[in-house]
Amino acid sequence: MSQRENISSEEVQKFNDLAKEWWNPHGSFAPLHKLNPLRFEYIRANSNLEGKTAIDVGCGGGILTESLASVASNVHGIDMAEKGLAVANIHKNDSELTNIVYSQSTVEDYALTNNENFDVLTCMEMLEHVPSPEETIQACSDIVVKGGDLFFATINRNIKSYVMAIVGAEYILNLLPKGTHEFDCFIKPSELEKWSRSAGLELIELIGVIYNPITTVFSLSDDVDVNYMMHFKKINDDR
């Protein structure tokens, strides 16, 4: 698979169709608006963002990107969904944020000319939407400086995750548009750790994210059966 082929046109179109919903806190991406503060505080607590450069891979409409920009000196957001990026740019300008740059690119292509450019990388709920997540992880590693922090969030692959992330979230609770996820594309933590280790990354922490449908609150947990985040550091050979 070449660098440029690691995208799914169907997945890109799916998020293009939802572009106008990105910044509606009660719309299709309402769960992201509720989840974003939890993710951002975890990233902020476990990396040195202040005065640093950060990149949000698969940034969508820029919800997490803007949070990163509130602390980091410069933030780059990349995505392949053109309409989502257009929304991100409009919201950035409306918010008068001058330290964010958005680009339409895969991280594989971006890595060709941006080797070791960033201190912190985030890639939230994107790996399950690309044909070859291991190639994406390698490219993510390539663009981070040695000793830098990388944060991935995705969904585990098991019966419980199918019931909760697809049947429950998409068809019963209507937290996400129907068809958002494909079960076969879900990723076990052991797979993500293996691919990341091969890409020169060291696992710092694996942590679960759970949702309470009664309180509608997300929280961190030891339960990684469904949603989880993994924090890695790029290995510094000189340490």
Notes on the protein architecture:
With 239 residues, the chain is of the alpha/beta class. It has one domain (3-154, 185-208, 228-234): Rossmann fold (3-Layer(aba) Sandwich). It has eight helices and eight strands; from the N terminus they run ααβαβαβαβαβααβββ. The protein has helices spanning 9-17, 30-45, 63-69, 82-94, 107-111, 133-142, 159-172, 189-198, and strands spanning 53-57, 74-79, 100-104, 118-124, 144-155, 201-212, 217-221, 227-234. α2 packs parallel to α3 (63-69) and α6 crosses α8 (189-198). It starts with 8 loop residues before the first helix and ends in a 5-residue tail after the last strand. The mean pLDDT is 89.
DSSP strand (E) fraction?
25-35%
- Whole-number mean pLDDT: 89
Helix content: 25-40%
Coarse shape: globular
Helical/strand content category? alpha/beta
Low-confidence stretches: none
Q: What's the CATH architecture name? A: 3-Layer(aba) Sandwich
CATH superfamily: Vaccinia Virus protein VP39
Rg computed from alpha carbons, rounded to a whole number of angstroms:
17 Å
Q: How do the strands line up in the largest sheet?
A: 3-2-1-4-5-8-6-7
